């Protein structure tokens, strides 16, 4: 009796049956699958929410709506977030938020925080604006996209964003390291965020993500893990001038390094004990 199944169907069935084995045995497969699920979930969610945010263009509170749905991606890929220092978000004072940047996973931590952050937007690289529904939704939600290669244009956009921050009592989130680094350290800061804060005489508020000990891009490892996000007390820039930028940058970075090391220590120690 001839088989009623075609070769493509048999291949698909075999592939599906091997998925649990690959997930359990292959770090590389698990690494790419988790990122695929993460990006797909966020992209689909953004697509579904486009009609909602479309009627409130460039409104940063759209990010609160998006966060309520996108945050579930963390549970799917096995990341737990612990939020500390949230009381520093309980005022309507405008400020420049700075944080370390380790991975595209950072946005999931921000989704956890947005209901408490309320009026807060982010400076992002311009190519993200063209990332389908995600990019369009991010633009509708008031993200500031800059092209780092066009320095003068980027500075102008940043100044305009700061003026809007002051006018609308919003917070502007900037990653001063300039790129993603998941190597257990906080890199030296670029000075753009500090120029903006001093020129506008508004505070700098540091936010620290603990080490992503469960993620290794070189070995393609992506295990379940926990991240502590700590919001530090805002640093006043009242009376500061451009002469104080270097000292302000170093002070903020030193505070963040200390908190990074402290919040990461117990998590990394727990991982070693579990192993």
From TrEMBL:
EC number in record: 2.3.1.51
GO cellular component: endoplasmic reticulum; membrane
Keyword flag Calcium: no
Residue span(s) of domain Phospholipid/glycerol acyltransferase: 95-212
Pfam families: Acyltransferase (PF01553)
Keyword entries, A-Z: Acyltransferase, Lipid biosynthesis, Lipid metabolism, Membrane, Phospholipid biosynthesis, Phospholipid metabolism, Transferase, Transmembrane, Transmembrane helix
Transmembrane intervals: 6-23, 35-55, 128-146
Keyword Cell wall biogenesis/degradation: no
Free-text domain note: The HXXXXD motif is essential for acyltransferase activity and may constitute the binding site for the phosphate moiety of the glycerol-3-phosphate.
Family named by the database record: Belongs to the 1-acyl-sn-glycerol-3-phosphate acyltransferase family.
Protein name, entry field: 1-acyl-sn-glycerol-3-phosphate acyltransferase
Species of provenance: Parnassius mnemosyne
Upper classification of the organism: Eukaryota, Metazoa, Ecdysozoa, Arthropoda, Hexapoda
